[in-house]
Amino acid sequence: xxxxxxxxxxxxxxxxxxxxxxxxxxxxxxxxxxxxxxxxxxxxxxxxxxxxxxxxxxxxxxxxxxxxxxxxxxxxxxxxxxxxxxxxxxxxxxxxxxxxxxxxxxxxxxxxxxxxxxxxxxxxxxxxxxxxxxxxxxxxxxxxxxxxxxxxxxxxxxxxxxxxxxxxxxxxxxxxxxxxxxxxxxxxxxxxxxxxxxxxxxxxxxxxxxxxxxxxxxxxxxxxxxxxxxxxxxxxxxxxxxxxxxxxxxxxxxxxxxxxxxxxxxxxxxxxxxxxxxxxxxxxxxxxxxxxxxxx
Length: 296
Fold this sequence. Notes:
Layout: E1 10-15, E2 21-24, H1 28-37, H2 40-43, E3 50-54, E4 57-66, E5 69-78, E6 98-99, H3 100-109, E7 119-126, H4 129-136, H5 138-155, E8 161-166, E9 169-175, H6 179-199, E10 206-213, H7 219-269, H8 276-295
Parallel strand pairs: 6-8
Antiparallel strand pairs: 1-2, 1-5, 3-4, 4-5, 7-9, 7-10, 8-9
Helix pairs in contact: 4-5, 5-6, 7-8
């Protein structure tokens, strides 16, 4: 941490659409002074989110949906050259989504006129990131994370919230959307990931868990619910992979059996493969090989 007044390291202010202060990490009098000093009101007319430097502060302004209302979230970071902690970005550098620190600040610090609201939460992680890292290197792994972030941004509404929760885990919060709508969003994200990945010559597989609840105060519980559903999907995938593996093994045994039988007949007949029975065996062998190649 930086030395000095901790409240001056990172200043957070939330304004409603009338520019009234709804929350501030400092007292309201100082918050008003900072709003003037950092030229906040004039910047609210810009296309948000916006970031700029002024008076040794790095300022970020964005709109955020909290309990079905839109607010302005202002964060001002005093730039201490010797302090790395004060330089933490509020968005993830790889994906451009919100990062976990920003999300936790919203959930833990901003409690604006809480009221009941319906929302769905989607938890996503990448199934084969380790395989991609091991095969192509960590640069390719970063590209995977970037592609998933791009897909999420493209497939959610402006009033929804998407963030990189950590590593290859992502969270999406859909306001006033039920589980059916959330699953439709997941499928759109899958299709978009597939399209973007194909352009990079990659195969990216994700798993997703969806949970639906009616209060932001239970965010911890809803994340656990989504997490359970995500791992349920992973277990189903592994079970299907195991079944497919057994199916392929059976096909291989059938192919080998037919191949041996065909070879014996060719030797015994001594007439090549013109014999009708031999031709049938050959055709059946071809069919099995095609099935194997399709299922592999």
